[in-house]
C-alpha cells in the first residue's frame, strides 16, 4: 500500500509539472492570439486571459498594406519552392551515397557531413552570394539551402534500412538510376521525406537574415523580415507604411499571429509522418 501511494504521489507530481510546463509554453502563443482579436485600445490597457472587444480591425489594417501582402506571397513562395528543392536534392544525394557503384561515395558523404561542423562565416558567405549574383534575387532564398547535410544524413540512413531487393529487382527489369529513385525509392521514403519537409518548411518560413543582408528590393522582402523591422522600430508606422498609428502593439501582435499560424496549422497533419521518419532515420549512423 505504501508503494502504491508513493507511486500515485509521484505520478501526480509528474502530471502537475507537465501541465504547468505546457501552460508556460502555450501561453505566449495564446497571448498573441487573444490580443490579435482584441480591440486596439484594450490591448494598450492589457489583455491577458480572454479577448476584449473582439474585432477583426487589426487584421484588416495589416492586410490593407500592400507590402504585407507582398511579404506573405514571397514567404509562401520561398517555403514551397525551397521545401520542394530540399526534398529533391537531399533525397537524391541521400540515395546516391548509398549506391555502392558510385565512385568515392564515402568521401562525398564525409565532405557533406563535415559542413555540419565547419562553416565559412558570414563575410565569405556574403561575398559568395554577391559573386553569384543572388543579391536582390529570389533564388537567394531557395538555392543556397537546397542541400542540407542533416537532411542528407536522415534520408541516407532511412534508405539503408530498406530491403536491397527493392532496388535489385528494379535493376533486373532494366530500370536506370533516375527510374529507381523516382519510382522505387521516393514512394517508400514518405515518412522520412515528410520529416524533412516539416524541417525544411519551418526553416524557410522563419528565415529572415538572408533578406536583411542581401535584399533591398521591397517586392522581395519576406513576412518575417517585416516582422523583425516592426520589432526593431519605435512604431508600426516606421516599419511598414509611414502612417501614424496610435496603438502599434496591437498591430505587432497581429502580425506575429499571421506569421506563426500557417506553420502551426500545417504541422498537425505532418505529425504522424514526422515522428516515424525521425525515429527510422536515426537508427544507423
Biggest pleated sheet: none
Helical/strand content category: mainly alpha
> How many DSSP-defined strands?
0
Helix residue percentage: over 70%
Based on CA atoms alone, the radius of gyration comes out at 24 Å
| String of helices and strands | HHHHHHHHHHHHHH
**N- and C-termini, Cα separation:** 46 Å
Low-confidence stretches: 234-246, 281-285
Number of helices: 14
As a percent range, the share of strand residues is: under 5%
The coarse silhouette is: globular
Average pLDDT: 78
Explain what the structure shows.
The radius of gyration is 24 Å and the shape is globular. With 285 residues, it is mainly alpha-helical. The relative contact order is 0.14. Mean pLDDT is 78; it is low at 234-246 and 281-285. It has 14 helices and no strands.
Which SSEs are present, and which pair or pack?
Layout: H1 2-36, H2 40-45, H3 57-63, H4 66-96, H5 105-114, H6 122-131, H7 149-160, H8 164-172, H9 177-188, H10 190-206, H11 209-214, H12 223-232, H13 236-239, H14 248-280
Helix pairs in contact: 1-14, 3-14, 4-7, 4-10, 4-12, 8-9, 10-14, 12-14
Question: What's the short story on this structure?
Answer:
With 285 residues, the chain is mainly α. The chain is 71% helix and 0% strand. The chain is globular and about 70 Å long.
Provide tags for this entry.
single chain; mainly alpha
Amino acid at each position: 500500500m505504501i508503494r502504491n501511494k508513493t507511486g500515485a504521489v509521484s505520478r501526480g507530481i509528474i502530471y502537475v509539472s507537465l501541465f504547468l510546463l505546457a501552460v508556460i509554453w502555450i501561453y505566449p502563443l495564446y497571448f498573441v492570439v487573444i490580443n490579435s482579436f482584441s480591440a486596439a485600445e484594450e490591448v494598450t490597457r492589457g489583455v491577458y486571459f480572454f479577448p476584449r472587444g473582439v474585432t477583426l480591425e487589426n487584421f484588416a489594417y495589416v492586410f490593407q498594406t500592400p507590402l504585407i501582402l507582398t511579404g506573405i506571397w514571397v514567404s509562401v513562395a520561398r517555403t514551397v519552392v525551397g521545401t520542394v528543392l530540399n526534398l529533391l536534392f537531399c533525397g537524391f544525394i541521400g540515395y546516391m551515397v548509398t549506391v555502392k557503384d558510385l565512385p568515392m561515395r564515402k568521401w562525398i558523404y564525409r565532405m557533406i557531413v563535415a559542413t555540419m561542423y565547419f562553416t565559412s562565416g558570414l563575410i565569405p558567405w556574403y561575398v559568395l552570394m554577391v559573386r553569384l549574383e543572388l543579391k536582390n534575387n529570389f533564388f537567394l532564398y531557395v538555392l543556397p539551402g537546397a542541400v542540407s547535410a542533416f537532411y542528407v544524413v536522415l534520408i541516407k540512413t532511412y534508405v539503408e534500412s530498406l530491403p536491397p531487393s527493392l532496388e535489385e529487382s528494379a535493376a533486373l527489369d532494366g530500370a536506370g538510376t533516375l527510374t529507381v529513385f523516382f519510382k522505387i525509392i521516393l514512394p517508400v521514403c514518405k515518412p522520412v521525406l515528410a520529416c524533412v519537409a516539416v524541417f525544411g518548411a519551418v526553416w524557410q518560413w522563419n528565415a529572415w537574415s538572408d533578406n536583411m543582408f542581401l535584399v533591398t528590393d521591397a517586392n522581395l522582402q519576406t513576412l518575417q523580415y517585416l516582422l523583425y523591422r516592426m520589432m526593431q522600430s519605435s512604431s508600426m508606422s516606421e516599419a511598414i507604411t509611414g502612417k501614424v498609428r496610435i496603438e502599434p502593439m496591437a498591430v505587432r501582435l497581429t502580425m506575429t499571429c499571421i506569421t506563426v499560424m500557417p506553420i502551426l496549422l500545417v504541422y498537425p497533419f505532418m505529425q504522424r509522418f514526422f515522428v516515424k521518419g525521425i525515429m527510422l532515420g536515426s537508427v544507423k549512423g
